[in-house]
Amino acid sequence: MNEQSEQIIIAGAGLAGSLLSVYLAQRGFAVDVYEQRPDMRRVDISAGRSINLALSTRGIFALSEVGLKDEVMQLAIPMRGRMIHAVDGSLTFQPYGKDDSEVIYSVSRGELNMRMMTLAEGHPDVRLHFGQRCDGVDFTTGTARFVDDESGESYSRSGATIIGTDGAGSAIRTAMQRLGHFDVTQEFLEHGYKELSIPPADDGSHRIDVNALHIWPRRSFMLIALPNLDGSFTCTLFLQHTGDPGFEELNSPERIHGFFQQEFPDALPLMPTLVEDFMENPVGQLGTVRCTPWHVGGMAVLLGDAAHAIVPFYGQGMNCSFEDCTVLNNCIDEFGQDWERVFHVFQKRRKANADAIADLALANFIEMRDSVADARFLLMKKVGLALEERFPEYFVPQYAMVTFHRIPYAAALARGKLQHSILEQLTEGVTDPAEVDFAKAESLITETLRPYAEDMTLFT
After folding, report:
1. Cut 0.90: pTM above it
2. Which of 89, 144, 270, 349 is the most exposed place for a label (fewest CB within 10 A)?
3. What's the distance, CA 368 to chain centroid?
């Protein structure tokens, strides 16, 4: 199929926009990407939400499809599981998967975004335009309006298909909303987040285990730390905005130091710039955006956070957005440049899955800050891995389905609920996985679950 004549406008040069531009350019489209921020490769700016990202199977698959995997994986550090830090300093390691082949990868959002931009710009059919703010879209004429933030000049682009990858505050989504018959909800947690850091040791090494995602769970709040290539860790404190403890209460060096001394005593000596970082870095918002429809005929479509922003607690925001790019590309394979049909089917295939991962991410916040220190939760995790080993055609733990497989999110959510019920029954009155009645387990599993492979194509 010759698609050379078609032009695409992408609003947003973040991770999804950069990846999508490569997908489309490889099909022969001419792609112009407009980004409101200056070029972060040349100007020292924040990468936006700077929580480190967890790259996993869905994202890696998308990168592989466009030949970017090897370049991106140079930025990645494997994490084999969670390292749980108790208040008394004791450590408990919880592997993510059944073996060391099932790991997630820590990557810096800023470093990854810069690398993705460079890789996209290396394609002759991709042009990136920085400092260009989308000022709206006239869907009656198919015209996108932009403002050059340096000169203040306004101008329009028309005649091109428009794709909004411009994040949770999407200007393209706002323009769609003005058309009417558009539903959007934005739900914010009572918690916010603040970025902190653990610097490298004097010899440049990591001060704590480099191949783990570190969690200090404290019931209603938590601290996490993800490794960076330079020997540092990016730490993130998730805490209520108000209350005791709350960000508003931690408003002096003494209160900050006292809070960490009480709640994270083993982390405090690792963070020499804690007070300065805490006082200087802003508190970020944590929210979920859901909307419908995602497209206006065949003229424009939303993708990634612009369509479905989620909280970061399942490590799937980037992976979900990358998978959006894969699915949209598949729809173009099937329907060519019949954009209205492409966008309609894309939304149909992704909406249920986007809602599912949003729900899973919210639930995983409770798991990370609370359940990971619970004995029954840990027992059920171990039993789940044992069931996967014995009944691999039927039972795959929900975390593995989401993170290490490409089963649709909605199917993973549905199967996960059934599997949780099975685990509750099998662990009732049990304190050790060896005590589980595996004959009963086989009966429950085969009566309750379909073979795993049968759900691989649901909701797609």
Report:
1. yes
2. 89
3. 15
Cα dihedral 404, 405, 410, 415 in deg (nearest 10): -90
Which of 125, 127, 145 is CA-nearest to residue 135? 145
- As given in the structure block, the two tokens for residue 310 are 């989620």
- DSSP H/E element including 410: helix 409-427
- Alpha-carbon Rg of the chain, whole angstroms? 23
The pLDDT averaged over each successive group of 10 residues in the chain (460 residues) is: 68 97 95 96 66 93 96 96 96 93 95 93 95 93 93 93 96 95 96 96 97 95 96 96 95 97 98 96 95 97 98 96 98 96 98 97 85 82 95 96 96 96 95 94 96 78
- The CATH fold assigned to 7-48+110-186+288-364 is FAD/NAD(P)-binding domain (3.50.50)
Residue 133's H or E segment, with its range, is strand 132-138
Answer for the pair 387, 337: CB distance below 8 angstroms, yes or no.
Answer: no
Distance CA 153, CA 156 (A): 10
Domain assignments of the chain as residue spans, ordered by start: 7-48+110-186+288-364, 374-455
Q: Phi and psi dihedrals of 185, rounded to 5?
A: -125, 140
Assign 3-class secondary structure to 182-221.
CEEEEEEEEEEEEEEEECCCCCCCCCCCCCEEEEEECCCC
Which of helix, strand or coil describes residue 237?
A: strand
Specify the residue for token string 């949770």: 168
